[in-house]
Amino acid sequence: MPIIVVDVMPKPEILDPQGKAVGAALPRLGFDGFSQVRQGKRFELTVDGEVTPEILDQARKAAETMLSNPVIEDVVNVAVEETA
Amino acid sequence: MSARIGVVTFPGSLDDRDAARAVRLAGGEAVSLWHADAGLRDVDAVVLPGGFSYGDYLRAGAISRFAPIMDAVVDAARGGMPVLGICNGFQVLTEVHLLPGSMIKNNHLHFVCRDQTLRVENAETAWTSDFEAGQEITIPLKNQDGQYVADEHTLDALEAEGRVVFRYVDVNPNGSRRDIAGISNERGNVVGLMPHPEHAVERGYGPDSVDAGRSGTDGLGFFTSALSALLAKA
After folding, report:
1. How many domains is chain A built from?
2. Domains in chain B, ordered, with CATH?
3. Can you list the residues of chain B whose pLDDT is less than 70?
4. In the annotation, is B186 catalytic?
């Protein structure tokens, strides 16, 4: 069954406290190659049957109205993926 | 007859009973409202209480804003009904776009629980008229996602229009932009804040005050303000 993947990230200008905490913890484990971490959200919307343009449009609208808050977040990706 | 102030219970609300008690102690009639109901049971004002509605899933307040009762709350708010959002209720009010901006995780990532001093910046809203502008009050603050954010343009507009209603004094407990603890809509009938006035309404159970331990009742003014506003209108 296909899924529609929606990726949401905190806006670049908004401090991301969770990403910052993760970023500060990485070097303690020896992962010292990363200067910054930002943490977002991935949603997987399962579609029974074919992903029609209407359904994809619904996913985009859901992403903008509910899955993200435009004050603090950006929808960075809405894409169809086939699952095994 | 006293004014009827409704308190909405969402799945995961915690402070609905305390808010209802605060309404009664202020002299009003508290009316329980359920998130799945469509109507407001003829109330004269509405409180959206604190808690973790829907477990703060997705974003704090993000799912509650789609509750059936919120259509009626938004309509009533646009018509001028006093609406107060406390903590999670404030988050719901921003998610439903009655108030601008949003709350993100505290900048230090810790849950905060403390007696917090606030300055009342605007004493002309429906929920602050019993205070004096510039008055400092102390009420409890307890949250995880309390950092108020908005873009600079919105912040400038809020300041210019006198819509910053409360500011944190002494410490900024969560990194909120410009020390903002609470704001209002343009008309001043809708107010949201992170700290909890309903937990500072009765001697023996409030924050410490200069008089004695746990004797602070600064939160009572929120509810008496609304009742005065409603009586003046009647």
Report:
1. 1
2. 4-233 (3.40.50.880)
3. 1
4. no
